[in-house]
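Re-run with default settings, no changes from the original entry. Doing this only to confirm the output is reproducible before filing.
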Amino acid sequence: MQGRTRTPIFDRDRTIEGSDAIWTVPNLFTLARLLCIPVFLWFVHSQDRLYAAAVLLAVLGATDWVDGYLARLLNQQSKFGRVFDPTVDRLMFLVALISMLIVKAAPAWFLVAVFVREALVALAALYLAARGVRTVKVSWWGKTATFGLLFALPLFLAAAAEPSGEVVYRSLAWIMGIPSLVLSWLSAVGYLPLLRLTTVEQVST
């Protein structure tokens, strides 16, 4: 009888897709992004450095794709990373929204609309996970909407921080923000068929 081959927790070698490894290069990059969240909060609430917070948030948004790229490039896809990466992204998103709402860096209705959508999607994902759905593929529309919002939010912050450039920053924020907000809600509708199917299967069993 052959013993089971276990993937090491510290991934010194390149692992196969969906391995049990935790300390991979992509996951370390995601961890670095997670550790930037307290720095963002410090900029916004302790130092009143909204422009620095805007730059940091823009960098975090622009590097959202890097961990996934590293996982494919280094062949270090892991089960942990598949959960860790989107969790950090959503946490970063929600922290930014709440912080901006507190300091009134953007219109409240816009921030609330984004927050409610994210909260509903998170609840839907938790519901599906509880029903045994391991992974939910994110649509291209959803990714595009998130990418746009992750640039709109820093622009709103920059507008609040720099009165001299407020008109330019705020105009760009609306140009990026409104289409992305609409796309984000439309992409959220994509969860409905899966939720309905999962509920029907639960009732029928």
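The mean pLDDT is 80. The two ends are 37 Å apart (CA to CA).
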